[in-house]
Structures are given as structure tokens and as C-alpha cells.
Amino acid sequence: MNIAVSPAAERSSARAQVQWSLRWENELRLADHAELAEFFRKSYGPTGAFNAQPFEGSRSWAGARPELRAIGYDARGVAAHLGLLRRFIKVSEVDLLVAELGLYAVRPDLEGLGISHAMRVMYPVLQELGVPFGFGTVRPALERHMTRLVERQGLATLMHGIRVRSTQPDVYPNLSPTRLEDVVVVVFPLGRSISEWPAGTFIDRNGPEL
């Protein structure tokens, strides 16, 4: 007997088969970096060749290099990725320790996987690291994914009207070594409450975006 399976059911089954692994950067071998680089090229490539360009060869990072990664695997290899890097940022004039989250990607055939799956793996680690806040930025086009996370689980707060300055990952002649962006800021209260996040409309990474 043949039973028809809807595309939504197939995607749900595929998501259920993703197994997550937490990997510190020093644990990754060259083969791991090569596999991740290929994954990022395929994941970011559909949004434009420029977005896939940083991942040439075996380079598995775009700007700053993460110290910890949540990597989802399935039968086809790498399925999803989320990176973490502890760093100091400056919110207006206040230096603040955060765990920056970034380098999020999901394989195109698993687009419905959602960042909430990666965050369920990463969130206990964020709490264990002893940092006051998790921090990230998203382009307005990706805001709906983070909104779901906030609305369903109440883990983060989205902030608008904030400009973020970062250094470029590479310095080129005749181009500014820094980049200033209007993005949506995502803050995860960990060791401190969201009311203790410094007021201000300008954030300086003093380094490249994760």
C-alpha cells in the first residue's frame, strides 16, 4: 500500500533526524573545517556569491573566528551551524562582556529547521559560561526567525534603532577598515536581567562580526 507523505511531514521528519554536537574550535580537524566551508558556501551561496566568498578552500569562518560551535549533522553531513565567541563590546561608553552568537546557517533543504533548534543546544552552554548577556545582530530580513524565538520561548529581546560598528575582516586599499550597520540587536539575558543592559543607540564591536 502506498501512503502519500506531505512535504511538511517530510521536513518535520528530516528535522527530527538532525543530531547536534558542541565542538570547541581546537577540537576541529582540517577535514571538519573543509566540510563546514563547503556547507557555508552552499548555504550562503543562494543569497549571493559575495556571501559565499569568505568560505573559499577550508576557511569555515567569515569574520571573527568562533570559539565554540553547535553543529547539526544528519545522514547527508552538516545540516546547520551556530557559532559563539566571548568578547567585550562597547555599548555607548560602557564596556560589556557578552557571548556573541553568529555564523548561523542551515542547509537549503532544511530551511524550516529554524534557529530555535540550535539555541536549544547552545542556551545551557551560555548559562554555564558565566557571561551576563548573549548578543547577536540580524538583518531585518531575518527578524521573523528571532521573533519566533522570543515569542515562543521568551529567551531574548529584540532591539531596534541601534547602529553597530565592526571592523572589516580584511583590509583593502581605498576601502574603509570599518563597517557601520543598522541592524536588529538580539540580547539574551543570562547572568543579569535585561533591565541592566546599558542604554544607548550605538554599539562598537572593536573587531569583526562573528
From TrEMBL:
Keyword Transmembrane: no
Subcellular location: Cytoplasm
Residues annotated as signal peptide: none
MF GO annotations: acyltransferase activity
Enzyme class of the recorded protein, top EC level: transferase
Entry EC no(s): 2.3.1.-
Keywords, comma-separated and alphabetical: Acyltransferase, Cytoplasm, Nodulation, Transferase
Function: N-acyltransferase required for nodulation. Acts in the production of a small, heat-stable compound (Nod) that stimulates mitosis in various plant protoplasts.
Record protein name field: Nodulation protein A
